[in-house]
Amino acid sequence: MDMQGSRPLPVTRQQAWDALNDPAVLKACVPGCDKFEPLGDDAYAVGAGIRIGPVSAKFTGKVQLSDIVPPERYKLGFEAQGGVAGFGKGESAVSLTPTGSTCELSYTVKSTVGGKIAQLGQRLIDGAAKSMADDFFKRFEEELLRRHPEAAATAAAAAPAPVPSGPWPVWVWASIAFLITFALGVIIFFSAAWG
Questions:
Q1: Is the pLDDT of residue 164 over 70?
Q2: What domain range is 38 assigned to?
Q3: 37, 68, 174, 179: which could join 74 in a potential S-S bond, CB 3.0 to 4.6 Å?
Q4: pLDDT in the model for residue 56
């Protein structure tokens, strides 16, 4: 699965960078995530329970950051295991571009899955990924506005802008790609089971 996209964020690039590098924020914002812990050397252990339709599974894995240029960009490598559901691995790149007093997050993601997860239909996988991404961005923006009330005041004063529903940010892709790989594992586990 290859994905790319961008998303406007209501905070400065530095504020977004700080949030994207805070394991507590990621754990709170990634759907189903119950573990996002530093392993040292820019690596994180990740765990998530995913439920898609009538199926649910527990995935564990690792996210490794590389090519880090604060507060501008980094790359992420990820791998996840979901037992009989299968596995997933991939890489993503995330960048933050200043847009005045706010910023835009852009990302690319490439991932592969194996095991039962690989037997799921692309439509089902894409639907699950979109739902997870939308949920993540809603939570992430709420957390940014909670942490930076001045951004909330500015956002409230500005005319409401539509929120893009297209592709999702990349660090989220570290987590979402991981979790989608997760979800794919979960989805496939119960889909073909369920997956």
A1: no
A2: 2-189
A3: 68
A4: 65
